[in-house]
Amino acid sequence: MVCKQVIRCLCEFLDGELAPDLAQELAKHLARCEDCKIVVDTTRKTIEIYCNTEPLPLPHDVRERLERALAEKLGRTEP
Predict the structure, then answer these.
(1) How many CB atoms lie under 10 A from the CB of residue 37?
(2) 79 and 68 in contact (C-beta within 8 Å)?
(3) Mean pLDDT, the chain, integer
(4) Which distant-in-sequence residues (6+ apart) come within 8 Å of 37 by Cβ?
(5) What is the pLDDT of residues 33-53, one digit of tens each?
(6) Could you tell me the residue ranges of all domains in the chain?
(7) Residue 32 pLDDT > 60, yes or no?
(8) Taking every pair of C-alpha atoms in the chain, what is the biggest distance, in angstroms?
(9) 1 pLDDT exceeds 60?
(10) How many CB atoms are located within 10 Å of the residue 26 CB?
(11) DSSP string, 5-74
(12) Which of 43, 49, 17, 70 is nearest to 79 (CA)?
């Protein structure tokens, strides 16, 4: 397995949905490729932080601007 393949399989690997043979191949690659190991570890930690963090409320003015921009982008007149 090469680095580009690791990146393509990253989500499935972290979700535990990668076929066992590919997961084993990816794990072998990570054992010898420090760059990919850093990417996988950083991505895993980012997901953990996101999942364990309470969402912050969006300020009202930001919400209104976002709704207007989305409505405009979608070609609607009302958000």
Answers:
(1) 14
(2) yes
(3) 93
(4) 30, 31
(5) 999 999 999 999 999 999 999
(6) 3-73
(7) yes
(8) 55
(9) yes
(10) 20
(11) HHHHHHHHHHTT-S-HHHHHHHHHHHHH-HHHHHHHHHHHHHHHHHHTSPPPPPPHHHHHHHHHHHHHHT
(12) 70
